[in-house]
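Encode chain A's predicted structure.
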Amino acid sequence: MKFAAVEVLLVAVVGLFAACGPVSVTGTGLVVTNPTDPARPFFHDLGTVRRGEKREHTFELENRSSEEVTILSVQGRCACTKVRVLRCFPAGGPPIDANFEADEELLRVPPGTRVEMTIRVDTTKIRANVDKLAVMRARTSSSRTPFLDFELHIKGEAPFLVDPDEIRIGNIPRSHGGAGQATIMTGVVGGQAMIVDVIEHSERVEPTLEYLFLNDEHIWTLTARITENQELGPIREVVTLSTTDANGQGNGGRLAVVVWANVVEDVVFEPRRLQFAPIGAGEAGTVTGRLRALVPGMSFRLLRGEVEGEGEGDLAKHFDVRFESVIRGGGERSFEWRVTVDARPGLPAGRFDGILRLFTDDAQHPEIRVSFSGVVR
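Encoded structure for chain A:
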């Protein structure tokens, strides 16, 4: 009896590990038949390539079980990894491609059938000069191989390392503009490539380039300033730099740095929309935001706040508006104000929507309107 109990326990443990792990049991489930490294059949080394290239590898598998196995889904761990081909080759019939439009059951694989899975890695979507392990997970109906992790090592080599990869300035005030920076260094150890100059940009951006040689490193700082009085909304610009070749010769190389910004009014309310947490019947509610000036040195006085309610009855009478400067003892003017909207007890049941109106002494922004909503349960 004791031996039988031990045997049952061992079977349960083996089943647990089979259900949780990505490694196939020899001779069962889906098995890789063309491993480049027999010790790691689900791994392939794509090596070091020039950044910007797309490299592929095809894993060949076979269903070694006695039952049909369905590949339910395939999912990459990052946007750089994609399954380009997934098909099986039934005996005596034409190849069958996976149905990637299906929510489940991408591909059914009969016993003994060969499968090809081609995975592509796009080095434009990975950080330059850094080793990357791209992972593609396949989920199957097999109890032996429910999860298969296909791993592809790659390194996209570039002559320069830009940190951050893109200049993201964020919100910038319309009348003032804004700026961001990126640091550029030689990306390859011992590399001789050099930045030469800024050669291309639009009128909306003013780039400057500074050079420093520090601790045997060539360091360039690219500053991109979006000029004032641009149209409201997102901006995407590209600053192109000329570079030497890998040996430090000429100026025919090109390095493009993307610049992002979002042009907003000089005075903004954050968040853009206020959302009350669910309010119980007969209870009060509170929501808070901030009104602030984005232009350096700008300050204003918040005069008053009021609410316009929407819905049945006069919902405005159920709300109070409070505000205070974030600067203690800063007087009547401030660059930032904390604004609180209080919902009094007694709001009608159901959803409510309203407009918060804030009035300032700034001639350019005398009134700011903010939507809010919530629900009384």
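The two ends are 59 Å apart (CA to CA).
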